[in-house]
Design goal:
The structure is a single chain. It contains no helices and 65 strands.
Length: about 800
């Protein structure tokens, strides 16, 4: 694509209030001043005569185009008029859809249904042909949003903190997900066209998130702006999301496979509601109120395009220049593949808005280093089906690059070539599908594979997995239940029972639900699904524990005197130097022990909404659900002076004796406090792709997403000299004093650093089957898969003498200065 413009069509007088909707290659222009509509044929560039669909002109008019129907909506009156998308001829008379329609509260699906939700009453309404249908919705006052994903409408309701996938025929909820949103949040939402997935931009927090209905899960929010920014609806292209920030004129590009920010690019110098549109995997941008438009590369490069002829400056250079090279020829035209509108009059150069530095040119695009291409396979409609079903398999290369050839092997003896292929399996089985891609740039073929499950026709549906979060809940904790199934069931029936009880603990008829257990014990969770007369069911036992903290070791200052509030409903613990901290299921923090610096005095802001805790030497940290960090206690080195970078977008925290760490959603580490040994001087390796952190005595650890460990700070005892065994395959890390621990994926432990008391001499019992680790100042703990604890190192205060009450049934551990905690 050259990025040049090829034609221009005059559709209204200069300065007219226009809006545009593109469907396929055709564009529809709505003139708000006259209330008329025109169609521009993308092939012939012919413009239709103006058509009036609604009785009066209005600033509240909106267009929604389905494959075979065009809808004009007056969002103020709730009136809808339908027309033929080719001729613009009205179909019957306008009718009332809803009383209160939000400007972004409309959606159309591929079966010509128009959906909306009354943002005052919460009533869901939709049109199928001329038939208006409604369904009451349990929405509140949080301004719900509607979109369409993979041919189904979806609703996001901040008031309930929920996203719902709706049945396109009945409007009933088929699946739900729980994005981290609040009633006060401002949202912009879009749906993926090729999979059941939502993309959410949350302006009040300056974050982006992804929710997948296939797994009924939502990812970790990614910070893309400042809280309060005006974020627009994300657009999707080639497995990337592009989010506009109208407050700054910037866009953020996110790789949806990794949920990582690829680039942020300044498109406009001033705030404003610019447009982002996609066509054939290409992202276009346009400012309706200026001469600036162009193409955005998914790596962040920009090619600007002049929409109108501009007089040249005295130097003979066009006033707007291509961001990647010399200025393009000034065609008086619109962008190929994209229809853009400019409602302003053309102005001479002297009136052209200039940049703050006085120039009128767009700066050259920053060239980002190109990552090595990765290849993956996408199977549609899903990775399972029946004999005779047609599957579409596509090869996806990121970043996008040219291919010299692609070859497929389907596991049944058949082969094919092409980037996108279709295949039917004639027999049941689990088939290994392989694809080899030869890059046009040369090199060895890149081979990837996936598996496709094919069942005999008429095979009953299967439940492949029950997803229980968390699988080891405590009393008072709200637990989410969902499942992976091989079809789209007609009915869902969940029951939770307890042995000896005649009546179920609870039942549910939705794809996902939540339940709070009030009594410890073993429960049986059963799901039954049905498609017609075919049924399937699956059961799983879960154990609900009391969530009671057990403590042993140094008894000074009441550090092991567990308060009554921590004897049930505790979901997280951490042992500090000489105090202890616990997190309750209701999001409140409890602390006890030494109080020399206020480290055990929980501030009011940590009495609710907390998701994680950590205790340092004489200070404490808490992470709030909104991604902000709270700190209290000793501040002699600034360890509780939370920096602005940790005010939002934080996903994990760790407190050392005199310094603090925070992990951001973008995988970067922030550190503050004492730096006499470089423990808060975060190295470049910890600036991205970090999955976990832990603060030691005078050193810091980080676990990278690839399973490798990095360390920095004091190395007097070798505590930051990461051994080769910790270069890969690590799943957890821990540091407290001058030694470090790492847990491998095979359940074994690696330890290095100070060893005067044997704290890194891992005993045979902890050589395998370990699920969690915790490093104290001079001792270490390990939790086994059977719920038992292994302890070693210094024992002068009994910190490794595990008491009988903590001998089994344990789900969490924490080693402190000279005491230990478990629950």
């Amino acid at each position: 694509m050259t990025g040049e413009v090829v034609s221009q069509a005059q559709v209204a007088a200069p300065g007219s209030p226009l809006s545009i909707t593109q469907h396929g290659t055709n564009a529809y222009v709505l003139n708000h001043a006259t209330g008329t509509l025109q169609r521009i044929d993308g092939t012939t560039e012919q413009i239709s005569s103006p058509a009036s669909l609604l009785p009066a002109a209005s600033d509240n008019l909106a267009l929604a185009v389905a494959p075979n129907t065009l809808y004009a909506v007056d969002t103020h009156s709730g009136t809808v008029a339908a027309a033929d998308p080719h001729t613009l001829a009205p179909r019957d008379t306008p009718q009332l859809l809803a009383a209160h329609i939000a400007a972004d509260g409309l959606a159309v699906d591929d079966r010509d249904r128009l959906w909306t939700i009354d943002h005052h009453t919460g009533e869901l309404a939709w049109l199928t042909g001329r038939q208006r249908r409604t369904r009451p919705s349990a929405t509140g006052t949080g301004a719900p949003r509607l979109t369409v994903t993979l041919h189904q409408p979806a609703l996001v309701d901040p008031a309930r903190g929920i996203a719902e996938l709706l049945d396109p025929d009945t409007g009933t909820v088929t699946r739900t997900a729980q994005p981290n949103i609040q009633p006060s949040d401002t949202l912009a939402v879009s749906g993926s066209p090729d999979r059941s997935r939502l993309l959410l931009a949350i302006g009040t927090r300056g974050t982006f998130n992804v929710c997948a209905f296939d797994t009924t899960s939502c990812g970790t929010p990614v910070t893309i702006g400042a809280p309060g920014d005006d974020l627009g609806a994300p657009v999707e292209a080639s497995e990337h999301a592009v989010v506009p920030n109208y407050s700054t004129g910037q866009v953020t590009i996110i790789d949806l496979a990794t949920t990582r920010v690829v680039a942020q690019r300044q498109l406009f110098d001033q705030p404003g509601r610019f447009e982002l549109l996609t066509r054939d995997g290409i992202v276009f941008f346009n400012d309706p109120n200026s001469n600036r438009a162009g193409v955005l590369d998914l790596a962040g490069s920009v090619r600007t395009i002049t929409k109108h002829n501009q007089p040249r400056t005295d130097s003979g250079v066009s006033d707007v220049q291509d961001g990647d090279g010399p200025s393009q020829p000034n065609h008086d035209s619109t962008i190929p593949g994209l229809a853009v509108l400019t409602g302003i009059e053309r102005k001479p150069v002297s009136e052209t808005p200039r940049r703050t530095d006085g120039s009128t040119r767009t700066p050259p695009a920053e060239k980002l280093p190109s990552p090595a291409p990765t290849v993956s396979i996408v199977v549609k409609p899903r990775g399972y089906g029946y004999v005779g079903d047609e599957f579409e398999l596509a090869l996806v290369v990121r970043p996008a690059t040219s291919l010299a050839g692609t070859r497929w092997w389907f596991g049944d003896g058949a082969e094919a070539t092409g980037t996108s292929v279709r295949h039917r399996w004639s027999r049941p089985g689990t088939f290994r599908v392989r694809a080899a891609a030869v890059l046009a740039a040369g090199g060895q073929p890149s081979i990837t594979e996936t598996r496709v499950i094919v069942d005999p026709a008429g095979t009953p549906p299967r439940i492949t997995h029950l997803d229980i979060q968390r699988p080891t809940p405590v009393v008072g904790e709200r637990v989410r239940f969902s499942a992976d199934v091989t079809a789209n069931p007609d009915t869902w029936i969940w029951t939770i029972t307890r042995p000896g009880q005649a009546v179920p603990e609870t039942t549910s008829h939705t794809a996902q639900f939540r339940h709070t257990f009030l009594t410890p014990g073993t429960y049986t969770v059963t799901l039954a699904i049905a498609i017609g007369t075919n049924t399937a069911n699956l059961s799983q036992n879960i154990t609900v524990t009391k969530g009671e903290v057990k403590a042993w070791g140094n008894k000074a200052n009441g550090v092991t005197s567990v308060p009554p509030e921590a004897t049930s409903g505790v979901t997280a613990i951490d042992a500090g130097g000489n105090h202890s901290v616990a997190l309750k299921a209701d999001g409140s923090v409890i602390a006890w022990g030494y109080e020399s610096d206020g480290q055990s005095s929980v501030p009011p802001e940590a009495t609710s909404g907390v998701t994680a805790i950590d205790a340092g030497g004489n200070h404490s940290l808490a992470l709030k659900a909104d991604g902000s960090v709270i700190a209290w206690g000793n501040n002699v080195f600034g360890q509780v002076s939370v920096p602005p970078q940790a005010a939002s977008g934080v996903t994990a925290i760790s407190a050392g004796p005199w310094h603090s760490l925070a992990l951001k959603a973008d995988g970067s580490v922030i550190a503050w406090g004492n730096n006499d040994e470089g423990q808060v001087s975060v190295p470049p390796q910890a600036a991205s792709d970090v999955a976990a952190i832990d603060a030691g005595g005078n050193h810091s650890l980080a676990l990278k997403a690839d399973g490798s460990v990095i360390a920095w700070g004091n190395n007097d005892e070798g505590q930051v000299s990461v051994p080769p065994q910790a270069a890969s395959g690590v799943t957890a890390i821990s540091a407290e004093g001058p030694h470090s621990l790492a847990l491998k994926a095979d359940g074994s432990i690696i330890a290095w650093g100070y060893n005067q008391y044997g704290q890194i001499s891992v005993p045979p019992q902890a050589a395998s089957g370990v699920t969690a680790i915790s490093a104290g100042v001079l001792h270490s703990l390990a939790l086994k898969a059977d719920g038992s604890i292994v302890a070693w190192g210094a024992d002068f205060d009994g910190q490794i003498s595990v008491p009988p009450e903590a001998a089994d049934g344990i789900t969490a551990i924490s080693a402190g200065g000279s005491h230990s905690l478990a629950y």
